[in-house]
Amino acid sequence: MKLKQRPLDLPHGCRNASPMKIAIRVTLGTLFSITLFVLAGCKTSSPGKSTAIELFNGKNLDGWTFCMRGNTDPAQTWSVSDGVIHCTGRPYGYARTEKSYHDYRLTCAWRFISVAPHADNTGIFMHLQPPDKVWPECIECQGWYQHQGDIMLHAGVGADGYPAQTKTINVPQMGPSNENPAGDWNTNQVVCQGNTVGLSVNGKIMNTITGCNLSSGYIGIQSEGGDIEIRKLTLEPLE
Question: What are φ and ψ of residue 68, in 5° steps?
Fold first, then answer.
């Protein structure tokens, strides 16, 4: 979800800090992100016993429900063909799982069909809370073109250093984006463990938040202007 004003130059709370303090914040954040992803990898099930859950069955959208602005027919926005989910991006809204999840690693393979002004945005919702509305209380892994390492805190969600507010809070990505050009596939991986959320884009760790006031909820895919395809949504529970 795109905001009109985005503090992309420096991390939240650091704009008046010294360069050394900023460097320490980024370094510690990166080290914590690496630790999170390594530990998450170690806590999955043993080899030969897969507990992975395919949230998308490759055939249809069974197991998903929809919330679209204006209560429009989701079939106008969402479809499946050739093993791929297609979202037109219009009208705004989202598809979400019918089940709630906690403590997992989510892998999403997706791409923009093309990008244009006001048609370059989507996102992955984590820990989505009822009631369904546009936009719900949740944590969003940003899908705005060139900002996919950002994390958005919606509708009262807070985390360490980012007190909960009614308005959306943006947690900027660490470093330059790591996205592929429009038309190429991207792989986003999200690790949710307890009150911590870590995000990587195409194998590069981009962001981590700790102390979240949400630790479970539905998983959603956002329709917000971007014409996108999704070919993989795999959830691996963490023990």
Answer: -120, 140
